[in-house]
Design brief:
With about 300 residues, this protein is an alpha+beta fold. Helices cover about 45% and strands about 10% of the residues. The chain contains 14 helices and 6 strands. It has helices spanning about 1-10, 35-45, 45-50, 55-65, 85-95, 100-105, 105-110, 115-125, 165-175, 175-195, 205-220, 235-240, 260-265, 270-275, and strands spanning about 25-30, 35, 200, 245-255, 285-290, 290-299. The strands form 2 sheets. It has a 4-stranded mixed sheet. Strand 5 and strand 6 form a beta hairpin. The model is unreliable at about 10-25, about 75-85 and about 140-155 (pLDDT under 50).
């Protein structure tokens, strides 16, 4: 991991820094859009944290991502422009939104900060291979209006999965609903015995845990490592789960439907037991495939 950050540091050190110039008044852009850079920055602090107050860069973000995300270009008034700066514009035209990337990858920001070019470099060197998303899902001409999901040219339907894969995960979650509810109830009873707060099931964690269990089925191997060689933790960013400080996993090859037996086996293992009773955890997801069980935790 240290080598990765060293590589980033060496590469980004050679990059030119984008100048940040503040513009006070709203303007009509070259395409006719009225845009107020000062308003956009002040009403979108997450964008401002990365781009500062540069009018051209802020407008590029609005045009490429902000509009689809429901961000407003101006306060409810009309004002009577610029061209776009090349460096950051190019990365966004390549489908990368540094604001989205920073918001959903706090671990990366903690190490390299909010600089758009450094974030883009991390994404191209490591993030893509780790299953991190470069921007929020957007609608395309192939939008499936009945489900609200979209299919890209690469076949991605949702959370980096094609439609068939995603439906398999959802169907498995649905079929496991009863056992999952029972298991979490028993885990909470055990936590109560240890004076620990109860856990709450989370829908996205259920899906993420189920995907990991199904990957273990396909690889015929229980592991903290996914079939592509990445850590299991990349499933959190894949599902857009980012607002947490602590996370963990328990997994086991076991096709039992006896939740008492399953829980007893985890309680008998010291590392699994410590995860079950970790006081920091607040949410849990339950995943089951043909041969494997997976629990995912976050605070």
């Amino acid at each position: 991991m240290r080598k990765k950050w060293i590589v980033i540091g060496l590469l980004t050190a050679a990059m030119l820094q984008t100048s940040m110039t503040a513009f006070a008044a709203p303007k009509q852009m070259s395409d006719g859009t009225v845009f107020d850079a000062a308003y956009y920055a002040s009403s979108n602090p997450d964008v401002k944290a990365i781009f500062g107050t540069d009018e051209q860069t802020l407008y590029t973000h609005y045009k490429m991502f902000g509009k689809n995300e429901g961000r407003l270009p101006v306060a409810p008034t009309t004002y009577p422009t610029p061209v776009t700066p090349p460096a950051v514009t190019n990365m966004m035209e390549n489908g990368f939104d540094p604001v989205y990337y920073a918001n959903n990858n706090k671990d990366v920001v903690a190490v390299i900060g909010n600089d758009p070019q450094k974030l883009y470099l991390h994404y191209t060197l490591f993030g893509q291979n780790e299953g991190r998303k470069g921007c929020a899902p957007t609608n395309t001409s192939n939008t499936n209006t009945s489900s609200g999901s979209s299919s890209s040219a690469t076949g991605t339907y949702k959370y980096g999965l094609d439609e068939k894969q995603y439906n398999r995960v959802v169907q498995r979650v649905d079929s496991n609903e009863g056992n999952a509810k029972s298991l979490v109830g028993k885990v909470n009873n055990y936590r109560d015995e240890k004076d620990k707060k109860k856990l709450y099931r989370d829908d996205l964690l259920d899906e993420a845990a189920t995907l990991l269990a199904m990957e273990m089925d396909d690889a015929e191997k229980a592991s903290h490592t996914r079939p592509n060689g990445n850590s299991y933790s990349t499933v959190f960013s894949q599902y857009g789960i980012s607002d947490y400080e602590y996370q963990g996993m328990i997994y086991q090859k076991n096709n039992t439907s006896d939740m008492n037996k399953l829980l007893e086996e985890w309680k008998s293992d010291s590392s699994d037991r410590s995860e079950l009773t970790n006081k920091r955890y607040k949410y849990v997801g339950v995943g089951r495939s043909n041969k494997y069980w997976v629990l995912l935790f976050t605070d």
